[in-house]
Design brief:
mainly alpha, 5-stranded parallel β-sheet, 15 strands, globular, AAA_16
Length: about 1400
Amino acid sequence: MMSNRHGSKSKQSATATASPPEPMSMKQWTVGAIDSLISRSDGGKDKIVCSREYLSCALKIAHSLANQLSTVEEERGYKEKSPSHHNINNTNSPPIMIETLDKSWSEYISVYCMTKTKAIQEEKNNEINMHNDASNNESDKGHTSVDADFEPLLYNNNNNNNNSDNSDPSELQNLAQQLSSLLENDDNNKKSVAYLDVRGAILNEGAVHGRPLSDNGKLEIRTLGIAFYELFSGGYFTAGARALGHHTAAASSDERAVNAAIMESIDAIAIGVGGDDQLLDNNPTKRRSLQHSNTNLYNLSQKTAIRTPSTASISVEPLKLLGLPTALCDLISNMIDSVIGSHGGIGEAYEFVSEVRDDLKLMIDCPNLYLQDVDLAKATNVGLQFGRSLYGREAELQTLKECYQRSISSECEVAMICGASGIGKSKLSQEFSRSVNEDGGSIYLSGRFDRLESQPLHAISSAFDKYCAWVTVGDQSTAEKVSTALKENIGQEIACLVTAMPNLANILGDDFNFSQSNNNDTVVDAQKRLRYLFCQFVDIISRCHEEPLILFLDDCQWIDSASVAILNQIFIMSGSAIKNHRFFFFGACRDDEMSESHPLNFMLTTVNTFGTKTTKIQLSSMSKGAVNKMVSTELSLLPRITRSLANILHHKTKGSPLFVKQVMMELYKQRLLYPSLSHRRWVWETNKILDMKIPENVATFITNSFDRLPSEVLSALVVLSCFGASADISLIEVLEREIGQPLISPLDDAVAHSVLGKRNGEFYFMHDKLQEAAYCKMKPEERCLHHNRYGLALGFVAARERDDRLLLTGVAQINHGGPKAIIDEEQAVVVANLNLDAGKKAMNISDFFSAHSFFDHGISNLRRGHWNDYYDLSLELFNLAAKCALMNAEHDGLKMLTNQIMHNAKCLEDKFQAISITVTLLNGSGNVPAAVDLINNTLSSLDEELPSAVTPLVIKQYLDKTKTKLAIISDDILLSYPTMINPSKILAVEFLDKLYGSLTLIGERAAIPIIPLKVIQISLTYGMSPHSPSAFAQYGSYLALIGGEFEEGYRYAKFALSLMKKIPTRAHDGNIMFHSNLTKLYVEPAQSSIECYLDSCKVAMKSGNPYAVVSSLVHSTLCLWSGKELNVAVAAMKDTMKESKYHKNVVVLALMRPTFRIALRLMGQSDAPQQDNLPNAFGETFKEDNITEKYAAHLHTIMFAKLSESLIFREFNEARDAADKYFSVDRFASLTPLMFFKRFYSGLVSFWVAREMNESESNKWFKRGVERKDEIEKMSVSASTWNFQNKAYLLRAEEQFCSRNFEMAETLYDAAISSSKSHKFVNEEALANELAGHFFLETGRRNRSVHYFSQAFEKYNEWGAVAKANTLKEYLDESER
């Protein structure tokens, strides 16, 4: 019950009239408490005193008394009087004679309990006021000591005399007077006392009056111990001062020898017993029965107790026979022996009463730990067992908790636990998991990297696979939600994740169509697809749970590049799990084994660059206190008792948790630490442990300890260590059968030796240091032979049984052995073929890093002349290795591979993949003209070359021919066309598609239209290819935007989408949708059609298509120019820049940044990105301007951004210069979604400049403006009134302004404003109002301009352009003046 002094005001008023707790003597309380408990049960008095209820109350009383004397001890300054202290314990000093009182202290102890009526009334009052206590209860949490409701009146030494060893009787008298009001005892109310509602106890003045104080308080400790003797025996034994006090403090040597012999005999019995039934266990009744039945042992103990009552193991024997906890008996014994100290050979005797107080507090707070007797039978038969507690990591745990709380509440954050092996990283993660679950729960997933792991993406995949298994069995409703969300958001593409996490199939259910193979030929970039799908998976499962999702990955020093890429994608990309603070990642690594270039350091640096905070939690060795806490907890002994052992262990292990544990296990094995029957607890041989030789590091210690294992067990451990930290039992069974060596039985023995664990169908080393120690038992020069032997054995079984998992494991083992383990050429070819198969399997789950490693190992096993002797094997290995190198951006190795293929391939068809990869390299590195030449040469070899000169006449001929063919074919017939199967034509279409991209990069607009026309003609003759839908979409764009045939163009844009669904592959869906959207954007309302680019982005992400980031660029740019709220547009731009920066697409990044700066400037934000070096995927860095100026088409877009910004902010010179550059490269501009916005803004700038320039320049600019106006007007008529009418009106108004036709201009400005409003272009409504304001201002009608400037001010603010709106204030303020 909480103390009233901490309660609320209302609670205090409710209990203010209640009397203080009732006092009584300790004897009265003992009798009353035992009677109360007997009335509730059938047990006798001996059982009652061992009950939890009685012990709980007695411990409260004992703690109150010890707490009171501790304060007296501090007042007297015992701890500071070191000379006196040393004199007491000086072995040369004569033994001190114990001086005692005539009465036991139990005569002077008052116990305070509530009366039953008062207790009931207080309980009612608490219930009435409970709703007022919410805030105060929080503060009460810090005041939960056993005597929180009763404060003993402490001894106050106000005497300034330095000799504080002399008590002042007058002050003790004052103490008694202060207590007088509490000591009144109404005999009539005795029966109403609630004896079990103990509020504390106090030692009265008479106990310490006139006591000698030269013993530094040892006499008080002993005397208090005698009182405890009586208290905890329930009055069974009244070990008063006379009974125990008239002996010398030092027992004779003969007596000590007798006692030692007795204890040795008892321990000999304990060590020699064979089973639980022969031991004294934790049951007090059974213990008494066993002890009383052993008459000789009982009599011997009783005789010894009479002879030497001061000896620790004898003086409390009656208490032990009652069945009291051993720790409590030892506490009383150590108190009674406190006056003996080290002189008497008692190393556990108390020095200060504060130690007694602290030990009692521990017993009260942790009764299951410190009051529970050791199970001697289990300890003897099973040995020393360690729990899962965490020691000495409170600060680090708190840091991790705070990091987690920030991550799920305010900001994205990841944490990494760092430290040497065996320092406790995994333990900290386990404690964090337990703590989080207690605090509200989470979805906690974990995995572990392994240096010898063979399965690609094993750590991450296994973590999510375990989640799938758990949610399927344990939470069916959530499993259904996850299944529905996956199918709706990802569709059939989710099937490719099933290979990585097989239990996902159980979530998706039997009705899900798994027939779609995970063929990476159907995607553009399988790795990008896999990363995207993992992000979507994390996003979806986090939304399906109320609790946050936590992912922990251990041993990140072994992290692989594929896992780094996936984690980076999860952290960086803007999924809702991150945005809504539903995901937290933390890991653990041995940072002392990692270089600066380690993939993990790269990952942490990368996520930090993208705004995700990283927190490093560094673990160091445990302190002495932490080691003592560990030893105390594991041995269930009070910290005071274990301190000496802990100090030795800390000195020998330097505080390494694993080292401490291993040494303690070794001490147990050598019988230097063992359960003692005589002491009924763990004991140890201090001197022998001090002399024990221990290596300086845990690795050597563990390695040496392995030598004591049976040879068969050690041999099996060596085999297991070759497979890493764990291995499936099924795999070990296969290996045992194939190599003919016993493995399963010896490994089970290793489990019994606590070297291994066994769970969930696998053997695992209890710590990675154990695995490393077993691995080091092999000679370095023989390790390759072991790996090769085991790998070949598993590889043959895998090939025979078509077991993919076994294949990957076996081939990884072979590769660990390396080429030097291969015995001949025949075996080398076998190994190369196995690596080829393993690489293909890795590619099937989109792990191109592992696949590349397999192919590389396969190539390294080929002998000289392999291109002649094993041509097909060599070509396939090199081609697939080149494909993986391209995916992994390993460009140096890629050039070597392609050169080999180009040099050794026997025909053109065999070179096509190498040519395709080379084109990609040339485009990516900026050497586009060389790529164009290579493509044209290849097309020529395929008899599909383009005309040498592409003129408008040639294009018209191709266009007319295509129209003629299509005119006689209905859409339904086109949709039923067969699939293209001619290999050379398939390749020709592939290279034509690449040529379209290359020409777009360099702005060769003249030749671009002929490419889709040629692809369509090939498709009409040879069937539809995966690129045919894109060609039809591009053809539709050409008809609409160049030919002005918007209706026909729109028809082919929609047809392309229909044809896309007929094509089996989804690899090119993103670019098909992108090109189709271009026409839709002109025909359909812009505000809705721009969302189609977001759809094409998502579809492209599913196939790893580079059009994903391009679609994202267009979508975010159109958000700005179509008048979306600026904060929405800015958020979209940030996502685009983050994605392009992550994928090192410097072109998209360079194109996005200027538009982003405009948006931020409009909003008045100053955090716009500055010009800096941008790294591309080839390791090259470029200045932003260099990138855009490299290609005229890009420069065209950048100049548009500058001229539109200058127009909006009325910066004439900047607008004129940017427009001049814009028109100079206009001929290079390709068909883009921004084209009509470019026409619109460049037309407005042209009319503005025309008004300000001299006549000759004015005519040039006026002509430019009229051309743009005419184009927009045509679009307004033939494409979409919604998108273009307001723009046409505004351009015409500016034209009439230049022509000084003011009346017409005024009408057109109003029409532009009205149309902008009707068609929801708020940004253009604001711009039209502002331009109208300038029109009236410049024509001398200032009053009329105010209305338009006011409207512009309002609309700019509505758009979110606060800074721009503020620039209009000068016009409005001036008009008011």
